[in-house]
Structures are given as C-alpha cells and as structure tokens.
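Appendix B. Raw example, untouched.
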Amino acid sequence: MVEKFVFTMLDKELKFDRYENSFLWLKDAGVALPVYKVEAPVIPLKASKSSNVFRLFSNDTGLLTSAYPAETKLELINKNSEVNNDVHFENAVAQQLTANGLEPYFCKKKNMVDLDMEGL
C-alpha cells in the first residue's frame, strides 16, 4: 500500500521548499522518478502541473520489489490474485515513459479514476 507523505504531519512548520532539493537530488541521481499531478487532463498538461504535489516512483521496479517483505514477494511470484499489483504497474509505466523521453503526469479528482498520462 502506498501512503501519502505530508510534511505537516511531521511538524506543522515544515514546508516543501525546505526539502525540495532532497527530492530533486533523488531524481538527478537516477534513483527516483517524480510524477507530478495535473489539475485537469487537458492539453497542454504542463499548464496545470502542480509543482509540490507528486508521486515518487522508483527508477528500478526490480529494486522496488526487492524492498518488499519475503511473504509479499512469494505472493507476487505465485501470482496471487489478491495481491494489489497497481504499484508495480504504475512504477513500470513511469519508468517506460521516462526512458522514452516523455514526462509522465497523473490526475486524480474525487469520483474519478486515476489517470496516468504521458507529457504532451
């Protein structure tokens, strides 16, 4: 399960600006892929990009999987249909879009299914 990280949960005074460089370092080091939220799925996507709301994906789906507990890995290997593979699929899509020179985005609104989109 993927949890939402909110800075103010740690400390009411924390602001994204203070930690932005740390996230950019992870991206520049090739460790993580930030996928930014857009407010509406309309072209051009970059026009409604939120600079401080994003999902951070692993640049290596295999390493992501290796971080799971042994029981979860076995369930994935045995193709247990009860295991939620959404995280792996989203991670793989983000990896592929980035590898092909496209910037992935996501859009999520109430009563709307997540839409993952390539940069246009």
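End of appendix B.
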